[in-house]
From TrEMBL:
<feature type="transmembrane region" description="Helical">
    <location>
        <begin position="107"/>
        <end position="128"/>
    </location>
</feature>
<feature type="transmembrane region" description="Helical">
    <location>
        <begin position="140"/>
        <end position="157"/>
    </location>
</feature>
<feature type="binding site">
    <location>
        <position position="195"/>
    </location>
    <ligand>
        <name>Zn(2+)</name>
    </ligand>
</feature>
<feature type="transmembrane region" description="Helical">
    <location>
        <begin position="196"/>
        <end position="216"/>
    </location>
</feature>
<protein>
    <submittedName>
        <fullName>Hemolysin-3</fullName>
    </submittedName>
</protein>
<feature type="binding site">
    <location>
        <position position="67"/>
    </location>
    <ligand>
        <name>Zn(2+)</name>
    </ligand>
</feature>
<dbReference type="Pfam" id="PF03006">
    <property type="entry name" value="HlyIII"/>
</dbReference>
<keyword id="KW-1133">Transmembrane helix</keyword>
<keyword id="KW-0862">Zinc</keyword>
<feature type="transmembrane region" description="Helical">
    <location>
        <begin position="81"/>
        <end position="101"/>
    </location>
</feature>
<feature type="transmembrane region" description="Helical">
    <location>
        <begin position="16"/>
        <end position="35"/>
    </location>
</feature>
<feature type="binding site">
    <location>
        <position position="199"/>
    </location>
    <ligand>
        <name>Zn(2+)</name>
    </ligand>
</feature>
<dbReference type="GO" id="GO:0016020">
    <property type="term" value="C:membrane"/>
</dbReference>
<keyword id="KW-0812">Transmembrane</keyword>
<feature type="transmembrane region" description="Helical">
    <location>
        <begin position="169"/>
        <end position="189"/>
    </location>
</feature>
<dbReference type="InterPro" id="IPR004254">
    <property type="entry name" value="AdipoR/HlyIII-related"/>
</dbReference>
<keyword id="KW-0472">Membrane</keyword>
Amino acid sequence: MSNEKFYTPREEKANYLTHAAGVVMALVATIILIYKATVADNRWAMLAYSIFGFGMVACMLSSTLYHFVKEPKRKAQYRHFDHASIYLLIAASYSPFTLILLREEQFWGWLLFALVWSIAVVGIAISFGQLKRNSHLKTASYVIMGLVILIAFKPLIETANEKGCIEVVWWLVSGGLFYIAGAIIYATAGREFIHAIFHLFVLLGLACHIIGASIIPLG
């Protein structure tokens, strides 16, 4: 039996168009961020922004393809990539904050980086198994990855204050709140276009994290 969710043709059009816009946003943001790191001649920033950019593009593109494809077998295959790419995006979103802002703050940056990528690797493996059977485990792991930042929230605020970029924290938190709001909306599945609305909240959350990453001092 298929575990596939079914959307009307016009819903699927809204679904893939919203994240197709996300692909464009991710590509533009990646170019700008890497250019900023290059001008600053900051190799850690180049690495962090490259990881972040790859995660953004991979997630938005996987989602777009999944919702665009109509053939059932291919759609089911793309669904695995769609779910796996969520782990990739979450882990990649940590990179600018762990490898740039917190990298020299004792062990905090590397601890967060190692934790989120460890969970991501396991989560990606789970995503290529039985999605329905592992749905609760996947949801829990998404939440845990998002909350990992709380482990180092105090040093994050202190470091941002010291470097005169406390706004970075507020953009990071705002992005998280948009993601949470989107998840709540997603939980009300059944209403028409609810998934496309969820996609819009994902884009808002991602935009906040892009802005936060872009204002981290590189000097």
